[in-house]
Design brief:
GO terms for molecular function: hydrolase activity. There is one protein chain. This protein has 972 residues and is of the alpha+beta class. It folds into five domains: 358 residues, Alpha/Beta hydrolase fold, catalytic domain (Rossmann fold, 3-Layer(aba) Sandwich); 189 residues, Jelly Rolls (Sandwich), CATH 2.60.120; 28 residues; 221 residues, Rossmann fold (3-Layer(aba) Sandwich); 93 residues, Alpha-Beta Plaits (2-Layer Sandwich), CATH 3.30.70.100. The chain has an eleven-stranded mixed β-sheet with strand order 1-2-4-3-7-8-11-12-13-14-29, with helices on both faces. A seven-stranded mixed β-sheet has the order 35-36-37-32-38-39-44, with helices on both faces. The protein is elongated.
């Protein structure tokens, strides 16, 4: 029943605009969080088929339930792996349409369906009843095994994964724990134990199933604290009468019933029907909620019902590789829920990957980051050979929401520390002192527990990060911890910034507590800025129920699991409040004493590496101003330099892709890697830069890309002088000395991340054209760390072609490619140049250069030794082959000509090969005919390799600098 409210004298508790704001927030929470929807991607090749599957209503029942489903079929020639895709609470199959289409576009057959009691499916909501909802998933796997589009591992055993978020995530885990046919499962923002989720601080001793090392369980008492706010939303979303048409989706729209029951009218409620107040819920679920909502604590029957509907009951039986994606902004299912599931799976010998992201039920549900992680995981484990889940641990360190310059950073650790105890977690102790100056603080719980503190709103989370104006507008709703109701313990200002990753415990002495129900406290970890602003990370609170005791009781309290960076100069505050608007709190007035047992808190951090660019934080406060001044001067100098570079343009060369003049590079040890190199590249050319190892090719290319600064000379691209960071470099695409791909991301994600770093619209990247060139197929959606060298090389070529640059520079692009791939690459470069663009390629495969390039520049020991067209370079050197009737006589005639070098007769073919040198072949032919020798043909049999070896061999052996030569048409 509703609890009484006490209105403080002298002012209204809630102004009308604030009430309206609260209503809006609750509506957003219901329609925007509980039901999870993914934006549809461009998947025009995906076909869909509507199906209705009949399943038994329950064990031994003769009645059936109809499940409304859609099958998404990829455009692939052979049977493909399949995925069962489950939706969030309050949604239906349409809620996951975008995610289903994305998975199908990656080559997977997807079956998305509306669970019992949702959308157009019949039946009642059983909260993932093992005998009903979980059995439904197994029946759908049976159905998939009959479809010809689905790959089978054995008769009746399809290659199948199962995935879902929130309500659907728990279904995925429970299905994987009861059906060994499942080959991969991915669960997002879901629960481990509904007892712990809805009644946090529920005792492990009372049967929660969570390990004692997990932050989730309480070590004190056997009753949790009901999340009244979330429970009301969670159960309210299913309170519509059974059979009522439509479902509320993530966008807030009400959609009519689909295939399984179109046109069904909402039934008229019968007050005499005990199910009338239960809406679409099963009667036992309805009764469990009713008793808990009234009393604020679960009955033994409710505890057992929730245990049966929790992944914790079957986690030890999950053998398929598992991905757990949990939101860092989630006051419904916190990080500790995924932690408990991960520990249970790992302790039983299973493989599991854990990923935290900056989202959750308080931040729009899953979203593209979580959905992409799920898709990558399913494709990796369903299309490849069986292998364990990646043990690495990724999480997001969110920026300050009031500071747009402080952006989120993605970090990755080698493994999830929850799987190996405390070995990968570092803890730093901070001393805390009482805010009142006395070790023990006395705080009160007012009659009716009103007014109550407001830490967060369900579905919205913490509002403490809103700008001051917004906070002021919401007035009393953001009162936070109320005076007289909160015990506070604070640290000294931090000497350096500190990143909290995970949860910690501390001992608190409370009491005595004589009330029959004990007492309830709400523990919070605040970040307090130097101006006194208090930030409660993600609005997370730990509820603690302390059992009745006539003497003070020391209890161990788990603070919320968070990821949060506390800046240097800020303070850490641990607070204990007697009330919270979102929880069921005892209504009797009470005075409670609170003291920290040892006055210290040990906060965890997980050593990890950044996977997105960020600037290091300088930990020494005293040099901040100096650092800022230096940074400002550096920025100003860079801007001026770039302006000078942008202004340094030769108007006569604005249409010429590349002109290099007298380029040189000296190193500190005196070595001169490049010495006076000059050449020119025209539009439409494919120019090969050749030379043995140490010739200076890569150094030249790195100077061209602005990666290193020349010691002398100039480089102009389309007339603009090239220096590091020059704006004209945006017209270049390059692959020089490796690509630097992030191994834990897919190929597609790497390309998109690279392009976003340019600041240009994604549409300008021509991503699909680049992917067609790379020809990676479905592998482009796999993690790069699984790529072969050839696949990495092709992905690098695609990266170089993003944006279709006017000049593309490639250093050894065919390394790691097999012959068919090399041929494909050759065709790609030729076609690319024919579009009016230019390609500069360095390669050791001279036969490929000969077939691909129109022009070549040969370098040796830092200088250009020859330059020109491939045709002229080959034609200016090498032997001429003569087909004659008297080979021996012909050889003697040719040897008598001035300037002719070696003459050889091929005994097998009878042909004569002669090094004519400067002698014109026409003169040689005329001399042979005059001597009575019949000549049937004369041709050069020279290969580029022959010319190359002739140019560099003698000079390489002697160590002398070669003299440059040119052929007709050369632009050296």
């Amino acid at each position: 029943m509703p609890r009484p409210r006490v209105r403080p004298s002298g002012r209204s508790l809630l102004a009308r605009p604030v009430v309206i704001g609260l209503v809006v927030l609750v509506v957003l929470a219901i329609v925007g969080v509980v039901a999870l929807r993914t934006t549809a991607s461009d998947t025009t090749a995906v076909r869909t088929e509507e199906v209705v599957r009949e399943v038994p209503e329950g064990p031994g029942s003769s009645s059936t339930v109809q499940l409304d489903a859609t099958v998404y079929l990829p455009d692939v020639p052979e049977p493909a792996p399949a995925v069962i895709l489950a939706h969030g609470f309050g949604g239906d199959k349409s809620s996951v349409d975008g995610q289903a289409r994305d998975l199908a576009s990656r080559g997977l057959v997807v079956l998305a369906y509306s669970a019992r009691g949702f959308g157009a499916s019949t039946g009642r909501i059983g909260l993932n009843d093992p005998d009903r909802e979980v059995a439904d998933a197994r029946a759908l796997i049976d159905y998939l095994a009959t479809r010809p589009e689905v790959r089978l591992d054995a008769p009746g055993d399809p290659r199948v994964g199962v995935a879902g978020g929130s309500y659907g995530g728990a279904l995925a885990l429970m299905a994987a724990g009861t059906d060994p046919r499942i080959d991969a499962d991915a669960a997002s923002i879901t629960w481990n134990d509904l007892n712990q989720s809805l009644f946090p601080n529920y005792s492990a001793a009372a049967g929660s199933g969570a390990p004692t090392t997990t932050p989730a369980p309480s070590e004190n008492g056997d009753a949790g604290v009901l999340k009244r706010g979330w429970a009301g939303i969670f159960f309210g979303a299913g309170a519509l009468p059974a059979g009522a048409g439509g479902s509320t989706d993530a966008g807030g729209d009400t959609s009519g019933p689909s295939a399984a029951g179109q046109g069904a009218a909402a039934p008229v409620l019968d007050p005499s029907d005990p199910a009338a107040a239960c809406g679409r819920f099963a009667l036992n679920v309805c009764a469990a909620y009713a008793t808990s909502a009234v009393g604020g604590q679960p009955s033994p029957e409710t505890t057992e019902l929730l245990r049966q509907r929790s992944p914790s009951s079957v986690a030890a039986s999950i053998t398929a590789p598992t991905l757990l994606v949990q939101g860092q902004r989630d006051t419904l299912f916190g990080l500790e829920q995924a932690d408990a599931t991960a520990r249970q799976i790992a302790d039983a010998g299973g493989s599991v990957q854990v990923r935290w992201f900056d989202g959750g039920h308080d931040a729009g549900g899953t979203g593209p980051v979580a959905d992409a992680a799920v898709a990558d995981f399913l494709v990796d484990h369903l299309t490849g050979d069986p292998h364990p889940a990646d043990p690495s641990f990724a999480y997001t360190l969110a920026g300050d929401p009031t500071d747009q310059g402080d952006r989120a950073r993605d970090l990755v650790a080698a493994r999830y520390p929850g799987l190996s105890g405390e070995a990968d977690t570092e803890r730093t102790e901070f001393a805390l002192t009482s805010a009142t100056g006395t070790p023990t603080q006395i705080i009160a719980r007012p009659p009716g527990a009103s007014p109550s503190a407001v830490s967060s709103f369900p579905g919205v989370g913490s509002l403490s990060g809103l700008p001051g104006g917004a906070s002021d507008a919401l007035g009393p709703l953001l009162a936070g911890d109320l005076p007289g109701q909160t015990a506070s313990f604070v640290s000294e200002p931090l000497e350096r910034s500190y990143t909290v990753t995970g949860s910690t415990t501390l001992d608190v002495t409370v009491g005595p507590t004589t009330a029959e129900s004990g007492t309830v406290l709400f523990a919070k970890l605040y970040d307090v800025s130097d101006d006194g602003r208090r930030t409660l990370p993600s609005g997370l609170v730990s509820a603690v129920r302390v059992a009745p005791s006539a003497t003070p009781t020391t209890v161990t309290v788990s603070l919320p699991a968070i990821t949060h960076q506390i800046a240097a100069g800020h303070r850490i505050e641990v607070a204990f409040a007697t009330t919270d608007q979102n929880y069921a709190v005892p209504l009797e007035p009470a005075a409670i004493s609170v003291a920290l047992t040892d006055g210290r808190v040990a906060l965890p951090t997980v050593p990890a590496e950044n996977t997105t660019s960020s600037f290091p934080v300088v930990p020494v406060v005293g040099i901040t101003a100096l650092a800022a001044l230096v940074a400002a001067l550096a920025v100003a100098a860079t801007v001026r330099a770039r302006r000078r570079t942008a202004a340094d343009v030769d108007p006569a060369l604005t249409d010429v892709p590349l002109v290099i003049t007298d380029l040189a590079k000296n190193y500190a040890n005196g070595f001169r890697a490049v010495d006076g190199v000059s050449f020119r590249v025209e539009t439409g050319q494919v120019l090969g830069l050749l030379g043995p190892n140490g010739a200076g090719k890569t150094t030249t290319l790195r100077m061209l890309m602005g990666l290193i600064t020349p010691s002398a000379g100039s480089i102009r691209v389309f007339g603009h002088a090239v220096t590091p960071g020059a704006p004209v470099l945006s017209r270049l695409g390059s692959f020089v000395e490796g690509s630097g791909f992030l191994p834990h991301l897919s190929g597609r994600d790497n390309l998109e991340l690279y392009w976003r770093a340019t600041g240009r619209p994604l549409a300008d990247a021509h991503l699909e054209e680049a992917l067609d060139i790379a020809d990676l197929g479905r592998s482009v959606d796999r993690k790069v760390k699984s790529y072969s060298q050839g696949m990495r090389q092709r992905l690098a070529i695609a990266q170089a072609m993003l944006g279709l640059p006017d000049l593309m520079v490639l250093d050894e692009p065919t390394n790691g490619l097999d012959p068919p791939q090399i041929r494909t690459m050759r065709d790609v470069l030729i076609r690319y140049a024919r579009t009016g663009r230019t390609v500069l390629v360095s390669s050791h495969l001279l036969a490929e250069v000969e077939q691909t390039c129109t022009h070549v520049v040969v370098m040796n020991k830092g200088v250009v030794v020859s330059a020109g067209t491939v045709e002229d370079l080959i034609g200016a050197s090498g032997p001429v082959e003569f087909r004659v009737d008297r080979p021996a006589d012909a050889a003697e005639v040719l040897r008598r000509l001035d300037g002719v070098g070696e003459v050889v007769v091929d005994e097998d073919t009878g042909a004569v090969k002669a090094q004519l040198g400067a002698t014109d072949p026409a003169v040689a032919i005329r001399t042979l005919v005059t001597g009575g020798i019949a000549v049937s043909s004369a041709s050069r049999s020279t290969r580029l390799e022959d010319v190359f070896l002739e140019l560099v061999h003698d000079d390489t052996a002697s160590g002398d600098r070669p003299e440059p030569t040119t052929t007709s048409g050369a632009r050296a």
